[in-house]
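anyone seen this seq b4? input:
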Amino acid sequence: MVRKKKNICIKGINFALIMYLLVMGIGVDLKTDYQPRKVVAATHVAIQNWSLYGRKNKVIYCNDSCTYWDRFKDMAKVWNAHKSGVLKQWKNGDIVTCRVQSAAELSSRSARTYSTGFIVFNTNQMRRHSQNEKNNVALHEQGHALGLDHNTGGKDVMNVQPRSIIKLSQNDKASFNKAYNKFVLGR
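predicted toks r here
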């Protein structure tokens, strides 16, 4: 019996593995074109067990004598670009769920978000940051108000260390979507 040689089409397949399988007598269909799969990095989702969403499924924030108010409003646009209207500035008739303040604290933290509805920027630490780091701190604290917890990725807004990052990473977006589903949609 004469065996026909098959055309070997190896695209992205480990040649040594194919040879091993052939030697061991394990059938390998080498005729079929191999279609490599796109490898997508897994996201790390981190959410808290609380958020500051109100009855209108939004975090309604107001200025409660905050030095960084304009910066806070500007950074809210980043979250709202991902999901429209989740952070909303207080208007007459709204029920405030988040008061934004600044205070000189004896703490190493740049800011803190409280489950009771306050975001407090520490002026003693904030003055040491660059402009983008200050923006990152505002964006980060807004993330806590939206239900996100700290994340470990170096390019994550929700990383515990202030950085110059003012663009949401895949981890930030995945965590936000999960938090929104939990706190607003009840899923």
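The two ends are 63 Å apart (CA to CA). Confidence is low (pLDDT under 50) at residues 5-12, 27-36. kinda curious what u guys think
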